[in-house]
Amino acid sequence: MARAPSGFLGKLAAQRPLLTTMVLALGLTALCVVGLRQSAVSGNADLVISFISNALYVVGAPLVLAAITPRRMLNKSLFLVLMLIVAVGLAAAAHQSLTLPFFHAPPPIAMTLAALGLFAFLTALAPFMQGVVRLGLLAPLAGILGAAGGAGYLALEGLLSLPTAAIAVALALTVGGTTGLNIAADFAKYFAKGATGQDAAAAACHGAIAPTVFAVLAVAALFVVETLNANFGAVEWNVLWGGVSVSLLAAAVALVAVTASLALERVSEQVAVDENRRREWFGRAWRPIRRILPATTALAATAIAGVYVVIAAFEAGVNAPMNLILFFVIISIAAALAFVSLRTSLLIVAMLLASAQLADFVYAVFGAATPALSERLAAMTLTAIALSQLTVSWRNAGEVWRNARDIAQNAMADGLHRFLAATGLGAASLIAVAQSFGWEGGFAAAAYFVATGVISVILAPVMMVAMSAKTGGY
Q1: pLDDT tens digits, one per residue of 272-300
Q2: DSSP symbol at 398
Q3: Are 374 and 163 contacting, i.e. CB atoms less than 8 angstroms apart?
Q4: 225 with 323: CB under 8 angstroms?
């Protein structure tokens, strides 16, 4: 293969893996400790410790277990049965139906169910995701470290007790984990094309920068709108900078740590085999969808979806329309700047707007109240971050494939597992932070995020084919 661009950061992390990782890890640990010790609020240390414990249990442990799940069917079945028994035991202990002598305080049932749900999600999609999960094993740990360091900074600035602190930490945990898994996915792609381990790691780091920049800008969009709404039209700059800084720290440590770990790891040809098998598996699974989705059908389906969005807006209404309009405008600008593509920006905003409005309509049909504005913005920000994993693949696929359905298929093959990983991580992160910070709206935000994610992944191939049809064939 032609040598993929690696950039300064990619080369630095791949060629100096131990130095860069240790500097960042020590710096973030020191920031967390100093911030908590200098904080005027005595309960901040317990809050951060609770967050780290819950994040390790709900986000870190399921990914590690999914990564070490055996490949052979018999061993895999025994392993899954063992995990189910452990989960049932922990849930029973939390319900006080069982006493576990080695647990001083068993995890709450909600945390066990969330961890089990993420593990089941990753296991069910193992043919499509297990290779990336194995390579990105350090991603959730890097996200936790970055979010904890960011929480120390918020404590130092006196912001950790604000309601927005929970949102900032949840977003940072997702941004860090998604960035790391994105690097792992690109590493597998480049390695399968013939790059060496170090070159593939450097190129993967460089390729992950644009989605990471968009993720940080999306977090900034949330806090701009949130502070404008809370302060009657005035941006609270310290809250904005604090929220963005937490995600920036988590993204930075994930970029460096995951790249460094992949550069150090002695990978075998099994990585290339897994990547090729993943694409082959996806090609077979995608064939029925490809057959029923020519460009003409996609254009018609997109028009029908637009009609349903308008109907949903009239039936369910639009809560805080000016705030949402401003949010979508900033998201579109962020996507255009990060991906240097107006078409990519349009695709992200169109899918995000449609999924949010249709989710509101579904809530209205079932008589359920939509979450408050802060929780809805948090969920939509995570949906935008997840969608960026798909849309950047669509942008890149447009340069290679000519047929509209080929473009969509290649984009989904390259980006769908990244989207699914971001969705699973985002939902688990919201639940872990909601439990740690006593953020009652976090569970509602997680449900709304899953709803918008499901709708957007249904709309994605349709809109990709429709938007590609202008420049491609049927």
Answers
A1: 888 888 888 888 888 888 888 888 888 88
A2: T
A3: yes
A4: yes
Q: What angle do CA 438, 444, 446 make, to 5 degrees?
A: 95
Tokens of 245: 């800084």
Kind plus residue range of the DSSP H or E element containing 12: helix 7-15
Determine whether 2 is exposed, middle or buried from the number of CB atoms within 10 Å of its CB (0-12, 13-18, 19+). exposed
Q: d(Cα 355, Cα 458) in Å, to the nearest integer?
A: 9
Q: Please, is 384 exposed, middle or buried when counting C-beta atoms within 10 Å of its C-beta (0-12, 13-18, 19+)?
A: buried
The residues that bridge with 403 in the sheet, in sequence order, are 473
pTM above 0.85, yes or no: yes
Task: Report which DSSP code applies to 370.
Answer: P
- Phi, psi dihedrals of residue 459, rounded to the nearest 5°: -75, -25
Retrieve residue 53's tokens. 């414990």
Q: For residue 154, what pLDDT band results from cuts at 50, 70 and 90?
A: very high
Q: How many Cβ atoms sit within 10 Å of the Cβ of residue 274?
A: 20
- Beta bridge partner(s), residue 473: 403
Residue 340, Ramachandran bin (φ over 0: left; ψ between -120 and 50: alpha; else beta): left
pLDDT at 309 over 50: yes
Alpha-carbon distance of 435 to 443, in angstroms, equals: 9
Across the range 227-252, mean pLDDT stands at: 87
The label of the residue with tokens 């694409």 reads 279
